[in-house]
Amino acid sequence: MPALPASVRIVEVGPRDGLQNEKAIIPTAVKIELIDRLSDCGLRTIEATSFVSPKWIPQLADAEEVFTGIRKREGVSYPVLVPNEQGYERARAVGATEIAVFTAASETFSRKNTNASIDESIERFVPVMQRAKADGVRVRGYISTVLGCPYQGEVPLSDVVRVSKKLHELGCAEISLGDTIGVGTPGKARAMLLAVAAEVPIDALAVHFHNTYGQALANILACLEEGVRVVDSAVSGAGGCPFAPGATGNVATEDVVSMLNGMGIETGIDLPQLIETGLWLAGHLGHRTTSSVVQASNG
Ligand code: HMG
Ligand code: MG
Question: Residue 190: inside a domain, yes or no?
Fold first, then answer.
């Protein structure tokens, strides 16, 4: 087992994964302020928005305005979600230099989320990957439902490995393994990671846990113990996918930072300032934060 790392890179997905699942439409100015506050907290990778179809995700229909409006802080990456060439063109037109493509390990979820089979969804972004390579754009690849599917239940590990290998061969610099509905437990998370890491270098892997059953921190720790160094999370525990019934928010960034601080693992993030940002966001969303750390610090 590799030693625990000295530092971990957190990929803050709240502005995208968090806000895509809100019932109310959040004002563009609030989205911009959220991202600027997060970069002030020390986050170095902030997934800013999504250039998907506004008919599918009306919550992020203002992607251009958000991306243009944020203060691009030196040393901070602002990747954006892109499903196809149309999304790539929109993202590039406003100057995005990092993108994330996405597919799934289960067929039914892929169809519900992108109106395409797994292979078709990959075919759609093959030309995106080619253009990104030519343009010097970094590409992250997401795989959803790696530990279970809201429609199909169990997802065979061989499917997760097959899709991971494919994304790696296509040139994804990083592959984020998504427990979309939060059904993973540490033993399963570890086994899934080890199966993927047998085929794809661990340095190219990230983990993305939704916290539906409160297992996300335990799953993250299991994956850190196996050598993962990149962890996705969302401030205030926001998040979820409108096409994944029953899924709740991502693990809260505040809780991940608190755990890592306690273990002496560096993130570069100012926790008190992050807690303040999470509370500010919860005020705008009109519902309570799911972060345990924030709940505890507010009595
Ligand atoms: P489709 O309807 O099959 O696409 O959607 P289409 O190519 O037939 O186009 C239909 C219409 O959409 C056309 O407009 C296109 O112009 C438009 P019309 O002619 O009807 O007026 N369109 C677009 N408009 C703007 N930007 C675009 C774009 N593409 C098409 N990029 C599509 C296929 C993939 C586009 C659609 O299914 C889609 O946008 N899906 C996105 C769903 C989504 O965003 N889900 C959440 C993100 S994934 C996630 O949350 C999981 C993750 O967090 C990891 C985890 O937790 O597991 C990453
Ligand atoms: Mg997600």
Answer: yes
List of E strands, 38-159: 45-46, 49-50, 80-81, 98-104, 138-144
| Number of other residues whose CB lies within 10 A of the CB of residue 227 | 18
Identify whether 2 is part of a domain: no
Q: Is the pLDDT of residue 23 over 90?
A: no
For the segment 190-205, the average pLDDT, to the nearest whole number, is 98
Q: Which atom of ligand 1 is nearest to the CA of 20?
A: 46
Residues within 5 Å of ion ligand 2 by Cβ? 17
pLDDT digits over 140-170, tens only? 999 999 999 999 999 999 999 999 999 999 9
Q: Are the C-beta atoms of 207 and 193 separated by less than 8 Å?
A: yes
Is 149 catalytic? The answer is no
Count of domains observed in the chain: 1
Q: Which atom of ligand 1 is nearest to the CA of 50?
A: 44
In this structure, what CATH number is given to the domain that contains residue 262? 3.20.20.70
Q: What angle do CA 121, 126, 128 make, to 5 degrees?
A: 105
What b/e string do you get for 96-128 counting C-beta neighbours within 10 Å, with b at 16 or more?
bbbbbbbbbbbbebbbbbbebebeebbebbeeb
Domain that holds residue 206: 9-297
User: Ligand 1 site: residues with CB under 6 angstroms?
Assistant: 17, 20, 50-57, 81, 83-84, 86-87, 90, 102, 113-115, 142, 144, 178, 180, 208, 210, 241, 243
3-state SS, residue 57: coil
Question: By alpha-carbon position, which residue is closest to atom 24 of ligand 1?
Answer: 53
Half-sphere exposure in the Cβ direction for 135 (13 Å, CA): 19
Q: Does any domain span residue 4?
A: no
